[in-house]
Amino acid sequence: MNASALKRSARVLRLLETLIFAHRRWLLAILAATSLLLGWQASGLKLDAAFDRAQPADHPYSQAELRHRDAIDGANPMRIALLRKAGSIYDPAFLSRLKALTDGIGHLPGIDRSRLRSLFTPEVRYVEVSEGRYFGASVVPADFDPENASRAQLATLRSHVAKAGITGRYVSADQRGAQIEIAWLARDPLSGAPYDQRQLLHSLDDVLRAARATSGNDFSIHLIGAPALAEALAVEAPRAALFAAAGLALSAVLLVIVLGSLRVAALSLGCVALATIWQLGLIRLAGIALDPDAAWAIAVTVTAGLIAGAQFGLRWLQLAAEGDRAGFEASLQTWRQLAGSLGGGLLIAALAAAMLAAFSDVPLSRQVAIVVVLGLIAAVPMVGLGLPILLSWTGTLRSRWRFSSWLDALIDALAALSRPRAGIAVLVAVGALGGLSIWQQRAQPIEPAGADLARLSPDNPAKTDAAKVAAAFPRNVREFRVIVEAAAQACTDAEALEQLDRLVWQLENLPMVTGSTALPQSLKRVLTAFSEGSPKFRVLARNRETLTQAMAPITADSGLHADDCATFPVSLYLDRRDAASLATVAAEVERFNRDNAAEFFDSHRDVDAAYCADPRRRDTANARACPIRALLASGPLGASLARQTALLDFRGTAALIVLGALAFGVWLLLGDALATAAVLLPLAVAGWIGLGMAASSGVALTLLTLPLGLTSLAAGVGSHLLMVRHLRDSIAAGQPLAAALREALAIHGRVLLVALAMAAGFAVWIAAAYPAQRGVGKLLALAWTTIALSGLVILPAFASLLLTRGGPDSSGHPSRPGSAPSG
Asked: Coil, helix or strand for 736?
């Protein structure tokens, strides 16, 4: 920024100064009216958890699942499990209630009846192979009357269940439970209006409540799935709010100690509280359905607002004490010195968060960033306008602001870091910590599978329900689904089926795969009947007519193929769900695609990769055959893999986006490349070290913790900006580096103790029973601790190397020796 631009900026600030301080009452009335309006808006804000919000919408894995969602089961259906306390499911009373519950759910609005599955839906089928004959039928015949079933009928039903291979999915392994799978429609097929999942859940609760009332003490009913997550989080809300209040109370006490004034601390807290109300109101006005996870981002903006307010309050106390100034004069002088940097710092952080939101394809991460943007924007008028006006009406305090002896000693020690040798020693130590961070990050969990349940308290009903259902139906949580694309009517294409069979064989041989379900297995069972059930003939036929006969009992309702026989889900069941195991399965699928395509093109010279990649070929009547293509991924573990790969792909890009936006904003404000580096390098180094500390403390890298950490880093730029600007202007005025650094620490460094106070408040969350709150508390405590230490220790070390030469001050010309630099 050149001298003329700096002078224009100064003129704008002078104009704003006149408008603000000459019309304080009118401006305060406008702020109060806006607070009432946005508070009314905020009162209608509700939390809304949605499974799809945590999925990377533009990732190829998610796109594959969405593209074939109508042909196969989705990644996260709702499940209702009925578990008997004694006896098996083959009991007339139990089966009657299971049938009644299935029928009741099927009539609810918003339920996708075509994907409703239980023992009493005709789509759950078995294949009978006996004495050279075969046929397929529903596990429960249409004329089966569970209430009046005889022992012989119940024994037949048990045999049908065994033949259908549904144990572990629709019937528990111990035969004491049955399960209903539900999928919901995204929109009303008639009106096109989106369905309210909360209303769907309430309707489902009514049905389940009636079923529980008639169950007596015979069985229990458990519901799991994404729509139930909002209710599960509602159970956590009161305890989470209690620990949040306890942490804020501790931070408030420490804020009073740091400021040395209860009155100024109360005004700062009040302005930040109003800014938070603005933020919530803006969220509702923006039409955002606030995810419970994204709500943690409010803690980032509260911290940023308190640090900015404390910075203004500290400087106001200093000026009021130095010249025995009245509140108005001290407020006016403080606003002149700090308004540009404080407001600029908040807006620069908002810019970085906005860029993160713009480039993120995960709705949850994007929403976290948007919440931060709205909070930082709301903090600008409340802290930059409201607080100065309130302080202007505050009289001169009797107990004047002064340093304590221990703080003087600390500032003297930190100022010594301006010496080149001390600065180099600090940077060497920082480099060693950065190297250690690399080693620590290698063991950091990456978006672990089952994270939705892991974040709930042990006694949360949803978690206990999920644990019981997972124990009875292990396939629910261990399923990894590969989606196979082929030409239409590939069910009777021997060559396509052979490729599909080879894919299943390759995947079954992976050490973490314990079983699978796919079309070739069912076809082989049917074809074996043609050879009197001899195992040696358990192979796929090469004749199309034979395959057509064998496919007769295996309808699309079986879930093994789509209606047009062009899509085939392959379900794998894994005994390990860690990121490495999922990556191994994904690598094997990619290897199959590569090797299978090479082999196919080698034997089919009339086609090549370019021809098969052209989607228009499917519309031609004489389309030539192409190799099948295995896509990733669906099922519970497939959804986890999509999140993991998206996170690994985006984390480096996200960090560069945030740092780039910060660099642009700081350079625009300072107009000096070296000063910009002095602001950002300590923050970047602190962020890298903090990431290693978070990894060593057990904080997983997720699509929530990544944007929370990065936006916290961005929100910490304001304090660094003020210190570097003061240092640069003081050095330009001819002040020695050590004296300039001590003065900067005395005037602006103390606010970093507020960051430590907020970190202490977040540390209180670590004692919470709510695992999600514990994890966020660890992350934010580490983030703000490293930000504070980077400003107090790392920034002086970098300043000793980058700010040793004078340059223009904030007004565009060298400052006079001894003058106080403006902000």
From this structure: coil
| Predicted structure pTM score | 0.85
Count of CB atoms within 10 A of residue 467's CB? 15
Taking only the tens place, the pLDDT of each residue in 488-537 is 888 888 899 999 999 999 999 999 998 888 888 888 877 776 666 667 76
Return d(Cα 642, Cα 636) in angstroms, integer: 10
Residue 219 β-bridge partners: 84
* Residue pLDDT, tens place only, 320-331: 777 655 678 888
**CA gap 473, 167 in Å, rounded:** 8
Which distant-in-sequence residues (6+ apart) come within 8 Å of 471 by Cβ?
none
Cα separation, 556 vs 546, whole angstroms: 18
Half-sphere exposure in the Cβ direction for 714 (13 Å, CA): 37
What CA–CA distance (Å, rounded) separates 367 from 441?
26
Interatomic CA distance for residues 644 and 184, integer angstroms: 25
Which of 733, 724, 698 lies closest to 811, judged by CA?
733
Over residues 439-454, mean pLDDT = 71
768 and 240 in contact (C-beta within 8 Å)? yes
Strand partners, 625: none
> Which residue reads 């093109």 in tokens?
601
Per residue in 70-105, pLDDT tens? Answer: 666 554 568 888 888 888 889 888 899 889 888 888
Of the candidates 129, 119, 77, 76, the residue with the CA atom closest to the CA atom of residue 99: 119
| Contact yes or no for 531/567 (Cβ under 8 A) | no
Q: Which residues contact 231 (CB under 8 A, 6 or more apart)?
A: 201, 462
**Structural tokens at position 603:** 């034997």
517 vs 73, 168, 521, 546, 675, CA distance in Å? 14, 12, 7, 22, 61
Neighbouring C-beta atoms of residue 471, cutoff 10 Å? 14
Alpha carbon distance 21, 74 (integer Å): 59
Q: Cβ neighbours of residue 625 under 8 Å, at least 6 residues apart?
A: 487, 493, 495, 496, 604, 607
Please count the other Cβ atoms lying within 10 Å of the Cβ belonging to residue 23.
Answer: 13
Q: Rg of the chain over CA atoms, in angstroms?
A: 32
